[in-house]
Amino acid sequence: MRSRFPPDRRLSARMLLTLFLLGLLYVLFVAALFALLKSWVAGVAIGALMLGAQYWFSDRVALYGMNARTVTPQEQPQLHGVVDRLCALADMPKPRVAVADMDLPNAFATGRNADHAVVCVTTGLLRRLEPDELEGVLAHELSHVAHRDVAVITIASFLGVLAGLIVRFAFYSQMFGGRRDQNTTLVLFAVMAVSALVYSVSFLLIRALSRYRELAADRAAAVITGRPGSLASALTKVSGDIARIPTRDLRTAQAFNAFFFTPALGPGTTLSALFSTHPSLERRLEQLADISARLGGPA
């Protein structure tokens, strides 16, 4: 989709590389299952149905999972006003606008393309942010739509989900399937091992792409609004408030971390940061300070 959001060729290259590697991994995965199970038609058919459902209905699933609903300009005039201004500034179609009634301050964008996109914010975010900070967050989310990385993440996540389901199926089949001969047991363990390996590799590839796309969205939002300081202020405020949200509430939202503006996580370890869907707050603020300096503003 053409828009005034600055194109990011490095992001595009990373998305293509990730999809290529995951596609190659998928071919190897199907080949391994065929060699082990002597049948692959049912697995591929089920996988294709899952991918289609995930791709075509990702926006509805995300809104349902977050207990969110689309809102009209009459219900949320300020929110719609900000989205209208940004879409006009970026010369892009306006997505649907939704609000999730929860105290967790966050936002996300989803949808297979610009014509079927939705931008969602939580009531906790609306209560905490100033208008210029909200504009920075929404510009960040709209850049995900413009760069098409939301659709890529949705597709890329499919293989990991499929491999994870096969691991669970093989595990429970082994536990509760009754007595089996030695060959069947070995095949089931081999399927579990291959699926676990595929899941691990796809998990790491998706995390690496997800961290980079967040930096790309920060850059695009800072440039299109011309106010990187407002986005930095929103990042600092939201990250600090998330740390004070009860752990129980954070766990209910963690399934959407790959789509969120900031991850729904409390203070973590170095290992958890390695597998995070987002770069560190310090890295994001450092990048915004560099952009601010180039634009002639305060660091």
TrEMBL record:
CDD domains hit by this protein: M48B_HtpX_like (cd07327)
Compartment(s): Cell membrane
UniProt cross-references to InterPro entries, sorted A to Z: HtpX_protease (IPR050083), Pept_M48_protease_HtpX (IPR022919), Peptidase_M48 (IPR001915)
Spans through the membrane: 12-34, 40-57, 150-171, 186-206
Membrane disposition: Multi-pass membrane protein
Active site, renumbered: 141
Keyword Transcription: no
UniProt key word Transmembrane: yes
Family statement: Belongs to the peptidase M48B family.
Protein name in UniProt: Protease HtpX homolog
Taxonomic lineage: Bacteria, Bacillati, Actinomycetota, Actinomycetes, Streptosporangiales
